[in-house]
Amino acid sequence: MPDPEIPGGFLGDYARILGEVAATGRRLTREELEVRRALGREAAEAGHQLRALVAMHLAQTRTAWPQAATAAPATADSVLAAVEQAVDAFAEGFERAQRLTVRREEAARREFIDDLLYGRSDLGRLAERATRFGLRLSRAHAVAVAAGPEAYTETDAVPRHVESALLARFGSRKILLTTKDGRLVCIAPGSQPDVLRYFAKQAHAATDGGQVAVGRPHQGPGGVVHSYDEALDALDLARRMGLEEPVLYASELLVYPVLTRDREAMADLVRSELGPLQKARGGAEPLLKTLSVYFDAGCVAAETARRLALSVRALTYRLERIRQLTGSDPSDPVHRYTLQTAVIGARLLDWPANEL
Known about the structure:
Elements: H1 14-24, H2 30-45, H3 50-69, H4 76-118, H5 123-130, E1 141-147, H6 157-170, E2 176-180, E3 183-189, H7 193-206, E4 211-214, H8 221-241, E5 247-249, H9 255-259, H10 263-274, H11 285-296, H12 301-308, H13 312-326, H14 333-348
Parallel strand pairs: 4-5
Antiparallel strand pairs: 1-3, 1-4, 2-3
Helix pairs in contact: 1-3, 1-4, 2-4, 3-4, 6-7, 10-14, 11-12, 11-14, 12-13
């Protein structure tokens, strides 16, 4: 049964063509095929479904064939061949138009995402465009970014798998999943933290243990950029600090930007507190790593030794050597805070690889 909402004009002179084929057994001309392709393109641009359009062609065939058959004894093969030609040309035009529309949509989506994540374009205009992609930027949004062992594009299997999992779990919620600079990016309303937690779980698994960072929710069109930058900063911080947690939350890492807000002051602390470690045999790095693991282990010597694959005696020697060089005792609570802050600063400033 053809769709009554589809105008019959998309059939063009299909009935006439069938009549002539039934009378003469001829094939469709090149001009007639081009007309069929043009009609298919127009139907696609009008938003109709190909299945309903094919049904309309078949219904017209059933209506026109008996009338044509009385004019001449054309074979069924001739008529069916003409039907096949006509429908195939119509579908070809329809599919070409759809592919062009998809490419335009992809280009528009990519342009919107670039403008959104880079803070380009007029914010009011950006908010208007966002509704087309299911976002209401007047509300708070948060962004999660997943980095895997390789760079991803939207057509790769990993992003498609994560997107399928999100759609299956959350259905029609206002979520935007994309890729940017080889990473997976998920934008979700700030009032729905469960979405980004689930994204983080799926992305971590799909990227074979990749790390995910989640920015804080922020209001308005500029809030998406802010949250995205926080997530990127968290990933960069994890790299420099050696943080191995699968999911990082910017809200839990706020102390690090505070520590580096006055970079010169932090650099001065690192130089004065840890600079003497460079006099040690093998340089500062082994002792700096010892301090870092010692603080991460809660200043428990046995656990620190286990993590470093050292004996407790060897660890004790290292800690004593640090005390001798720096004048600060890592086991002394009075000295511990200064030393730990300096160690964090060294990681943030990538010292001693970089001169301060």
